[in-house]
Design brief:
Shape: elongated
CATH superfamily of the largest domain: NADH:ubiquinone oxidoreductase-like, 20kDa subunit
Distance between the termini: 59 Å
Number of helices: 10
Catalytic activity: H2 + A = AH2
Order of helices and strands: EHHEHEEEEHEHEEEEHHHEEHH
Subunit structure: Heterodimer of a large and a small subunit.
Strand content: 5-15%
Radius of gyration: 22 Å
Largest sheet: 5 strands, parallel
Domain NADH:ubiquinone oxidoreductase-like 20kDa subunit: 11-175
Binding site for [4Fe-4S] cluster 1: 11, 14, 114, 162
CATH class of the largest domain: Alpha Beta
Helix content: 10-25%
Strand order of the largest sheet: 2-1-3-7-11
Family: Belongs to the [NiFe]/[NiFeSe] hydrogenase small subunit family.
CATH architecture of the largest domain: 3-Layer(aba) Sandwich
Length: 329
């Protein structure tokens, strides 16, 4: 399967994340699945005239384009020309290259939240008029129109994340290589459901504290970060804590709240990422899968039943009260 990867307006963090794939590494994994990069700006040796010849051959139909991957948002300014970002040496904007190549691709994959919905590049007034490949924030229709479909019949596949988990990218590509990714496998925002059907909350190492609403008040503390520190893992899609990054880490495991980076418009939440907005002392954002009244009732009961061990550990930077050994029967 031939993959062409273009980097648009972004930091390149999704490529850096992809390179951190382990067991097996990204190169062995993709080679084993019969996937090869026609060109990747950070990984390929070709540049200049060689890349221009490759693009010309793809446009002429001489080289099959199975998957077009776009990393980074698409700058459409000034005035819709896209000339804020040119593909070096071609005299053509990334916006125009996307619109020329996307109809030729069997599938189009937007890698990272900048490419999927606009992401961080659109924050702060969006001076470059950046949009996602197929979405402008949460609204369908970005650099490509809402009705766009690749040759496979699929819409743009939105592998959202800032950055993406390396496994989300490799699994998506392997499913495409095997012809196993269908429209039913995408959620309402075009994200692959193998990770979007989970919440970041699932598998979180702080779940014991969450169950008793034993909350941390400082970032260094062990307790749940939802009540005071802005964590939205109970609302954010992603299997980050089910399959930790490189088998070990996640934002919440590292002591930082989930900021819902797989969602449109996460980049401007209108409050600090590390502070929970509240009304009358009640967090504004509550778990997506529980009615508010139920949550408040259960939270009150849980706080009243909190074991002393959990209450003390929640506001400590390390475990100070270990679990008591169970009595043998």
């Amino acid at each position: 399967m031939n993959v062409l990867w273009l980097q648009a307006a972004g930091c390149g963090g999704c490529t850096m994340s992809l390179l951190c794939a382990e067991a097996p590494n990204v190169f062995d994994l993709l080679a084993g699945a019969g996937i090869r990069f026609l060109w990747h700006p950070a990984l390929s040796l070709e540049s200049g005239a060689e890349v221009r010849r490759l693009l010309a051959a793809i446009e002429a139909g001489e080289i099959a384009l199975d998957v077009l991957c776009i990393e980074g948002s698409i700058a459409t300014g000034p005035n819709g020309t896209g000339r804020y970002q040119m593909l070096s040496g071609t005299g053509v904007s990334l916006l125009d290259w996307l619109r020329r190549l996307a109809p030729l691709a069997r599938d189009v994959v937007a890698v990272g939240t900048c490419a999927t919905y606009g992401g961080v590049t659109t924050a702060g007034g969006n001076p470059s008029d950046a949009v996602g490949v197929h979405y402008d924030g949460a609204r369908p229709g970005g650099a490509l129109p809402a009705e766009f479909r690749a040759r496979s019949g699929l819409p743009v596949i939105n592998v959202a994340g800032c950055p993406t988990h390396p496994d989300w990218v490799t699994e998506t590509l392997m499913l495409l290589a095997g012809g196993a990714l269908t429209a039913d496998a995408l959620d309402s925002l075009g994200r692959p459901r193998f990770y979007a059907d989970h919440l970041v909350h699932h598998g979180c190492s702080r779940n014991e504290f969450y169950e008793y609403k034993a909350s941390a008040r400082e970032l260094s503390e062990m307790g749940c970060m939802m009540e005071h520190l802005g964590c939205v893992g109970t609302q954010a899609v992603g299997d980050c804590n089910i399959r930790p990054w490189n088998g070990q880490g996640s934002c919440t495991k590292g002591g930082y709240p989930c900021i819902n980076c797989t969602a449109p418009e996460f980049e401007e939440p209108r409050h600090s990422f590390t502070s929970t907005p509240k009304i009358a002392g009640i967090p504004v954002g509550l778990p997506t899968d529980m009615p508010k009244a139920w949550f408040m009732a259960l939270a009150s009961l849980s706080k009243a039943a909190t074991p002393a061990r959990i209450a003390r550990n929640a506001t400590a930077d390390r475990m100070i009260v270990p679990p008591a050994p169970g009595k043998p029967r």
